[in-house]
């Protein structure tokens, strides 16, 4: 699909309010530091390096090939630079596609003014023999520091695309230039500030990530810290594997089960892949593990054990375990894979039985995390590299503090023993359901329990106890369950889920009532079984399902039962809590429809994209209906959006008794800076077209807000995490676009992460405080928890629906089609759900 014609009016963004952040009453610490950029200009050049040698090992099948190995590219470019006009000016090459210079390189080139060609012969340890290369350097763009300063001062005349390119260039320089004050592990910068030592073969270090961002009045660098496992074993991979599997082996022994099975080694393969081990006097890279044991492997017809004894006089160790596979496909016994002394390596994956321990060990208190960030910024500011000096980049060693304010929480309304909803007490964004009832109860008349397994594993008596506890919790919550003793069905054969689900649905259809719910008990955590159950239920059988693992049935924890009850209540048409009308500014006074959308780029079928669009169906933004679209691979903007808008408006009109929304508030997730303008142009225009499909004269006022969660911004008080409702709208936010950070929840451990909102369009001309308060209030309306969440509930629904949407395709993952970017509109289509579930919140 070709993007629509550029609309200059739609390209503009609402400016940052002038009093943004000035009336805040709280100071919070950030993980930002100011950056001084004293250089006047920054020149960007594109670098192409082609191998001209037809016999080179780097040559592809299609003739001369671009060299992709960064180390080879860096070596070739350095040689080209030393013997050419490039040596006359300072130039920094990032090892990929671009070179940067604070002075013009191309003004005095003899060739065409924008391109320089250099041919040379280069040899290195990465090549089998010397090869001839052609290096092309082409001038791309010149950036002016004064324009950046104007943008930071709020000048909206500076194009947003100009600043994005400038930031990309400065980012590349700061991120990729050598940093001797950090531990450099393959381009990842680590520091051992307060490392955590574990007994599983690794220590937990801190990896630092840097991002340059324009702020209000200044340029900032944002520093993020992520915990990573660094191998501390100094012997061999066999010893590392014993520590890796130690916890699982102990668990098997407690259960009187046999030791590790060969299939268990698949979890160890990601750890091995990419590691370097010592062989003789050199380092050898590993590509993974063998698919058979060492005892089954041979070399030229001779067993591997015999081969190593005869040729090297070495014992291969345990023959029942797999071997490591070198990059050249040779098998190496794990006991002979010596880890290099003094060379640290990142362990790619921790095992599933270690994951909880890893997260507990790496989830440090806020004050610890702030110390880690401050340490990293001090190290970064100590950098006296010639690269940063050449560009006039100087980083302040101290972290920035900014003003913030704490928004008042909304009033949560629940029923007690009367039909009238009343406010409940709330603390730190949480409230308790004890003695309270949901504001809107569903009615459960016909349901059944479907157990995947045998009666020996899940006895009926145990199941009845769980059901009784579940019914009791539902009654306490005010949920009307008329059938307190549902029928139970056991399914021992899982090769025909459609037949099993159909029988369960028929079993639950009692007294003339159609089936409302099938409660599925799963024997273990199985993505494939869960996915098949949901696929069949949503698209073929047409019945609501709720899955519970058998271990939770045995424990029947009250909190878990409450969560299941609340989720079931929402699926069947009820709702948990309401907000006071005053806390939803104008939502009920002026008919308003809330929209949300997200695009999920899956890993199945080569990266198919699935989009989900949600729209509210009532004036209180309680109930939502969703639409799923499947469209071309990796495409961010949503096709057929106007068709979905028309459907959403019709549903709102029907559900509210003939009310047309006068306002639309659209929350959009998952869009980066480079895609922001295109998404706004395409999707906003589609909303207007969808309204015109209802009535050519109908045009409600639209507000478009972008939300970002994938950032490293953090805000802290001296005493720890900020309070829920903390809003930062000055300093480190965008200087030119109306934007703010909002911390709507309180994390139970670690550091709370705020969401970043950018207002891209606002026909409604909302007061800034009203828009912040509305967004914060909607974060309390996620009905399956009794607390505020990170972002408005509508966006959580969109996330859930993109996950469920892949299952709605009604095809197994391995048969999903592979989509590519193409103008063929037929590749974008609505994904159907069974008519019995349409317009329900089945995705919860």
Automatic annotation (TrEMBL):
GO molecular-function term, one example from the UniProt record: nucleic acid binding
Region Disordered, annotated ranges: 1-26
Superkingdom classification of source: Eukaryota
Pfam family name, one: ArgoMid
SUPFAM superfamilies membership: PAZ domain, Ribonuclease H-like
Domain called Piwi: residue spans: 517-810
PANTHER family the record matches: EUKARYOTIC TRANSLATION INITIATION FACTOR 2C (PTHR22891)
Protein name: Piwi domain-containing protein
Species classification: Eukaryota, Fungi, Fungi incertae sedis, Zoopagomycota, Kickxellomycotina
